[in-house]
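Pipeline run #58 for the internal structure catalog. This entry was flagged by the ingest filter as a single-chain record with no existing model, so it goes straight to prediction. Upstream metadata was stripped on purpose; only the residue string is passed forward. Reviewer on rotation: M.T. Logging verbosity set to normal.
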Amino acid sequence: MNKPTTNRGSRGPRKAPSGKPSGKFSGRSARPSADPTRDLAFDIVCGVVEHRRMLETTLDRAGAMEARDRSSAHRLAATTLRHMGSMTELLQPLLRREPPEPVRCALLLGVAQLLHLETPPHAAVGTIVDLLRRRGLAPFAGLANAVLRRVSREGATLREGLDEARLDVPPWLWSAWGARARAISRGLHREAPLDLTLQPGAAVPNDGEELPTGSVRFPAGTRIAELEGFEDGAFWAQDVAAAMPVRLMGDVSGKTVVDLCAAPGGKTAQLAHAGATVTAVEREAPRAERLRENIKRLKLETVQVVEADALTWKPKEAVDAVLLDAPCSATGTFRRHPDVLWIKRPRDVVALAEAQDSFIDAVRDMLKPGGMMLYAVCSLQDEEGPERVAAALERGGWRLDPFSEDELSSMAAARTAEGYFRTHPGLWQDRGGMDGFFAARLIRV
């Protein structure tokens, strides 16, 4: 795991605890009781740190369990990942030597409970001590007891001087974001709200906030399936930034449009409701099935779903437009998926950029002369956004069609000098933020 450091000013190293259990937190249990929440959260964080395994992958593998336990585990793990860099730094002077990675993961879960989830100290410490015993790490139970007790007493002091926004972003990403890094990090520690895109004419669900772009926002933690109109297909979940690319395609009524890498189907639904004849292409079978399920719930009978590789698939006839929401590093989604910050590496961005060039070249062969490609990625990396557009223009066969001020009047801060659409999680903080997205409109010549 990356272990970022920072200058704490004049604060010197502290005396490390002995690791011997003491006080009311030190009770021993030969058979600690089951704790599905902490066990699953531990598996999630260890999966990210040790195996670069996505949070959702571990959740999917967890099997049957109470929805309440699963939700609590997700919240604990996500909170730990959002604050992992700064909590790692905080722990450094409290440890005589580096513990095994699973032990460090358990300690991080404990610190997250104490400092960020307001868990009562006896519960935060005791659950982590029991977790270590259940997982065959009993020799480290005393260490966890001592370290977490100290954090419970001195947490505010221990956090002094920590640049948490910077520490909680891996150094390579902070460097890559350059002058934007501090602004981007404003969205780091807030759980994302639920944004909906409504079918034309659908009523705004009760208690929803209508945003300037037309999306409807609900507080974080809102369960979409419990909102009135869900079963009827009146709306679908889609971040406010993710809903913009289709709107930036202009009037697509009556046009033939291919939506590449289409799952889960939010943009497909937008295109269909805008009157386009849509072919939605998705390569991976599970994602294609999810796409079909969403299309069915939304009652979009005219959409054709194709399970195929977008790099090799071709429409029977050239089409008017292609929406390419290209596979990317997804660094712009860290509010919802904080694990992405700790899983991705610079070499992943390089590989993805090469693939994005291939997708762009494949799209050109699908379009009629004068046809439009809307290129989009939920990435904050220059290599996957403006650099890919520049490379496509240099290879030839395209011209840039910049987005106008009028087209982005509802989100003016997202328009760049080049006429690109670019957002980041620090925008609209007074409204709850948004995902990081990049989009550009190119015309085949």
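catalog note: The radius of gyration is 24 Å.
catalog note: The chain is about 40% helix and 15% strand.
status: ready for reviewer M.T.
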